[in-house]
Amino acid sequence: MKKITCAVLGYGDRSSRYANYAKLHPDELEIVAVTDVNHLKLNQAKKDFALDDRSLYKDLDAFIADGVKCDVVINGTMDQYHYETSMKLLENGYNLLLEKPVTANVSELLEIRDKAKEKGCKVVVCHVLRYTPFYSTIKQIIDSGKIGKIMDMQLNEHVWYGHFVNSYVRGKWRSEKECGSGLLLAKCCHDTDLMCWLNNTTRPVKVSSFGSKSFFTKDNAPEGATKYCCDCPQRDNCMFDAYKFELEKDFIPFYTWAGINKPLDEITREDKEEFLKHDAYGQCVFNTDMDIVDKQCVNVEFENGTLGTLSMVGGTSKAGRHLHIICEYGEIVGYIEDNKYTLRVFDKREVGYHDETIDLSAAADSGEKDNSVAGHYGGDYYIMRDLVRFLNGEKTSVATTVIEDSVNGHLICYGAEDSRRENRTVFLDEYK
Ligand SMILES: NC(=O)c1ccc[n+]([C@@H]2O[C@H](COP(=O)([O-])OP(=O)(O)OC[C@H]3O[C@@H](n4cnc5c(N)ncnc54)[C@H](O)[C@@H]3O)[C@@H](O)[C@H]2O)c1
What we know:
Blueprint: E1 4-9, H1 13-19, H2 21-24, E2 29-35, H3 39-49, E3 56-57, H4 60-65, E4 72-75, H5 82-91, E5 96-98, H6 106-119, E6 123-125, H7 133-144, E7 150-160, H8 161-169, H9 176-179, H10 183-198, E8 204-212, H11 242-248, H12 253-256, H13 269-275, E9 295-302, E10 307-316, E11 320-327, E12 330-335, E13 340-346, E14 353-359, H14 366-369, H15 379-391, H16 403-422, E15 426-427
Parallel strand pairs: 1-2, 1-4, 2-3, 4-5, 5-6, 7-10
Antiparallel strand pairs: 7-11, 8-9, 8-15, 9-10, 11-12, 12-13, 13-14
The structure holds nicotinamide-adenine-dinucleotide (NAD).
Nicotinamide-adenine-dinucleotide is lined by residues 9-14, 35-38, 41, 59-60, 76-79, 81, 85, 99-100, 126, 128, 186, 376.
């Protein structure tokens, strides 16, 4: 197998995790260049991969002008930059590992797909959940036909409050106006993708959706609450007080303190206390400029009659991605957090069924367990393993995706948002 050479665009949280695969498997992947607008990120990349200064770029145009040769570019910029940067890279013939969501609107999505086709480039979208042992073994069971065709898929996504507040109430995905993505697209294009991928003998045709921001609103602020927690008289009575929630619990430091613009290990407690006095991370959760929903449900009908429902709630006590798939002769039920699920098979000769527990915890690859790439239940690791094989023309897992496969899941998100806003059922053919 040939070693894959890889450049990174946007050396942030996501890209650096993917790039770490090169440290675990230097014989498979080599990071040859990094582009980032932030010099701290370039310094970090330089250290992480012993890159010389000529391999570090402050902007994409300089990277392209230099004609850097590589087998693939990881595009890990934030959502609002995916379209422009991906189009430039594709125009210049680069294969992409592109973070999800591809983009926030249908015309840009299809333009990226078409540009990839025109230029003969491969675009793998980071639907990392597909690659987890949990979902990929479920896909294999469904594809085997053992329990018949899918009749109904019930999916839930409960976003733990630590994650929800740090990403969607105070964090960088809180404003659709700024980042381009609403909550459904940013958080649950994984789930709409899973629905389409698990059921890819057909395609989604109709979508309806409801949702709103109902908890993180001004009306729910404690009486007398101020805009910033630092001078709020209700601090002692509020679980979201920034000094408790962000400083003491410090759930996701690389999100919370990114705006201080110092390496994480050099940030002092004083820096953090000062930061919370003026940044969104120090604001009352009931009074930020969050312009997205905190809960939404989505109904989908597929061409062959399969139904799918997704319920997404932000701000729950625990993270929970649950699935219950009902097929003609069996069911699959489980939480990905448990790393196991129940496979229920009907006995076709008798009235009855038997349950089997599929426990995946023992099967974990050592790479999956390595913290630096272990995110998303191993999905971050397995997508890189597949990418290397895919670019080598070798056999890949059931998860490997090309851009065409990502279109339907995105269309469900766009359709759901139009449905929610316009109070109507959306026929996905209208986007053609
Ligand atoms: N697959 C998943 O499950 C998953 C999970 C979380 C986030 N994401 C997505 O991954 C993407 C990246 O998220 P993140 O949290 O790593 O972001 P990040 O902010 O940590 O990283 C983005 C990096 O891009 C750099 N950058 C911005 N504009 C640039 C430009 N024009 N040229 C070069 N560099 C530029 C920034 O300086 C930063 O270092 C987002 O689209 C996000 O929605 C995906």
